[in-house]
Design a protein that fits this description.
22-stranded antiparallel barrel; mainly beta; 4-stranded mixed beta sheet; 56% strand
Length: 657
């Protein structure tokens, strides 16, 4: 959905009316700042107000509430997997302020690392974006943008309790802003207890269905599949510390440094998983004049995994360590109303794990260069073209990607048409894996001859944004967007039967035939001046090709999210921000359609703004007590209605300070 809804101020109703006239600025779609209505491709914007009203803990919670066609589930060892508009998680690139993150838990990065405490907005571009962002930007890009407070200083402490798993979240943040310096510091700790899921069928029911099957009588296959259902969710604890410091050295030169540490422990039956993340970086921006600027940056990210037995013994000397060193250079030059950018990147990717077929470490270098020309032919016609070349040393693979986007604007409607190609280079794990799956009874083998995955994305969209000002009750701003798309995906990397390997059955990474995804995304929204708002997002998709037992497992043709909100200040010391939201996922196109019939879950959120800087958050999740018939890796992980209560205090707004 593309909805120009900036942050809703509760200080006064006049501030709310003023806020809807603002034009949010986004950067992900073009690498340069553009207002949302001028972005060359459809960009979904999650604003600061969206983040606050959701009270989400991390990016996984936030996207689940806001984006249709997107669903998180579980893979092996209960590590999170992602599906978005028919693509698996490894085809969606996640960025934090434009920077990649190292490591993976199954088919993408560890989503627990991406907390939302100092996030200003989230930008989502669906479809291929490799011409600007390189590998992994096959199915889309999710960019988390930090906010830079303008107040002299801010300080916040917060805590929340959720009855599901007795989950606790504690956090705090501090910032200061001077003429030369701007600093953002945040901390978050979460803990959740193990959750026992009710069995869908008793052992007696399973035995009865087995007897009927043996006798040739009609039987219920879903009952017999109970052995693969989830029965217990593991508990876990996380710690996340982040710092971002900006120094305005001169009027022309700005330097930004950042650093972070993340720790997560997942409590298993026989041992615990420990995850560590370390990140840091430095970026310099030099502005010659209004028309020219240069950005140089270096980023480091490391993600480690280790297993420990209950007595504290580590199971391997080198379980998993992934390190990435990335250097960027971007030059931007304005030519009147037009803009030209040149960029180049270098990334060293290093992976150490006991699961490799030879040795314990592998590494590769990725070198790329790209260019983009933003041509504003007239006030109503804009054409943006991008090209990029990538080279990967380990696989000796090369990729040439391009994008062409056309924006045609009229007072009553905006039209967009876009073609973009995408690719994903095989990872070091996929090329060199040699992993004994243990209790699953087979080996998982890498393939150094893998070719990059490739995609071709076509989409067209119409958008209308307007203001109603001729009605006493309906005054406000509305928006709707309709986009149709086609993704042609080829050489997808998956696993096939590898035959016997040293007496064991095996699976091997392989390039298989392509798949085509057709889809339609529709979104609409309305903000009334009285404080009422409505957001509705719907996604339809259809896939052709072999989608089962692949990263495209469980695509759902129909999905929808919605939210009805209301904000009002009753007195000087009390205001409310309320929202009732929901998500609906239809029956999957393939996979376990016998047990997965789709679902709808509602959520009620109330934020009470009290006195000066005190916010009391209460929520009822799964409002109508939906319970799955059977628990499995892609079912909603809920045991019924749950409740949460949280307190957030902005110390800088209190009279004491």
């Amino acid at each position: 959905m593309v909805l120009t809804m900036p942050v809703v101020s509760l200080s006064a109703q006049s501030a709310f009316r003023d806020s809807v006239e603002l034009e949010p600025v986004v950067v992900t779609a073009s690498h340069t700042p553009k207002t949302l209505k001028d972005a060359p491709v459809v960009t979904r914007l999650i604003t600061l107000h969206d983040i606050k009203i959701s009270d989400a803990t991390n990016i996984q919670d936030m996207l689940t509430l806001e984006i249709p066609g997107l669903e998180f589930g579980f893979a092996m060892s209960q590590e999170t997997s992602l599906r978005m508009n028919g693509f698996g998680g490894n085809a969606v690139l996640f960025l934090v302020d434009g920077e990649r993150m190292a490591g993976e838990t199954m088919d993408n990065i560890d989503y627990n690392r991406m907390t939302l405490d100092n996030v200003g907005r989230i930008e989502i571009v669906k479809g291929a974006s490799s011409a600007l962002y390189g590998s992994n930007a096959v199915g889309g890009v999710v960019n988390i943008i930090s906010r830079e407070n303008l107040e002299p200083w801010t300080a916040n402490v917060n805590s929340r309790y959720n009855t599901f798993g007795h989950e606790w979240r504690h956090g705090g943040s501090f910032s200061f802003n001077t003429v030369k310096w701007n600093s953002q510091t945040s901390f978050q700790h979460t803990s959740i207890d193990p959750v026992n899921l009710p069995k869908a069928h008793s052992s007696e029911e399973v035995a009865f269905e087995l007897m009927k099957k043996a006798q040739g009588l009609p039987y219920d296959e879903s009952v017999l599949q109970d052995d693969s259902n989830l029965s217990r969710l593991y508990g876990q604890k996380t710690y996340n510390v982040k710092e971002r410091l900006t120094w305005r050295a001169t009027e022309r030169l700005t330097l930004t440094g950042r650093g972070g540490y993340f720790f997560r422990t997942s409590e298993r039956d026989t041992y615990d998983y420990h995850f560590n993340g370390y990140s840091g970086g430095l970026k310099g921006r030099y502005v010659w004049d209004h028309d020219r600027h240069l950005e140089l940056s270096y980023a480091f990210d490391q993600y480690d995994k280790a297993n420990f037995t209950p007595d504290g013994t580590r199971t391997h000397d080198h379980d998993y360590s992934n390190r990435q060193h990335v250097a960027h250079a971007i030059y931007s030059h304005s030519l009147g109303k037009n803009n030209f950018i040149l960029g180049a990147d270098f990334m060293n990717d290093y992976l150490s794990t006991y699961q490799f077929i030879t040795g314990t470490t592998h590494s590769q270098n990725n070198i790329d260069g790209y260019a983009q020309f933003d041509w504003n032919i007239t006030e109503w016609l804009n054409v943006v073209g991008s090209v990029r070349y990538d080279y990967f040393s380990a696989s000796a693979n090369k990729a040439f990607t391009e994008r062409l986007a056309i924006v045609y604007k009229q007072p009553w409607m905006t039209f967009r048409a876009n073609y973009a190609s995408g690719f994903r280079a095989p990872t070091l794990k996929e090329m060199y894996m040699h992993f004994d799956m243990g209790n699953m009874g087979y080996m998982l083998l890498g393939n150094p001859d893998l070719k990059p995955e490739k995609s071709h994305n076509f989409n067209v969209a119409v958008e209308r944004t307007n203001r109603i000002s001729n009605s006493k009750f309906l005054n406000g701003r509305y928006n709707f967007t309709l986009m149709g798309y086609c993704n042609i995906f080829d050489k997808r990397i998956t696993t096939i039967d590898g035959g016997l390997y040293e007496g064991m059955e095996s699976a091997r990474y392989w390039n298989e035939d392509g798949i085509t995804v057709w889809g339609v995304d529709f979104s609409m929204g309305h903000i009334w001046d009285c404080g009422v708002s409505l957001k509705l997002n719907y996604s339809w998709l259809h896939e052709t090709g072999n989608v089962y037992f692949s990263q495209f497992n469980q695509p759902r043709p129909h999905s929808m999210t919605w939210r009805i909100g209301y904000n009002h200040r009753f007195t000087r010391y009390y205001a409310i921000d309320a929202a009732i939201s929901g998500r609906s996922q239809g029956k999957p196109q393939s996979g376990r359609t016998d047990v997965d019939q789709g679902y709808t879950i509602w959520r009620l959120m109330l934020q009470h703004h009290l006195w000066h800087g005190i916010n009391l958050n209460t929520a009822v999740d799964n409002l109508f007590n939906y319970k799955p018939k059977s628990y499995y890796y892609s079912s909603p992980l809920t045991t019924g209605t749950s409740f949460s209560i949280g307190l957030s205090v902005d110390l800088d707004k209190m009279p004491l300070f």
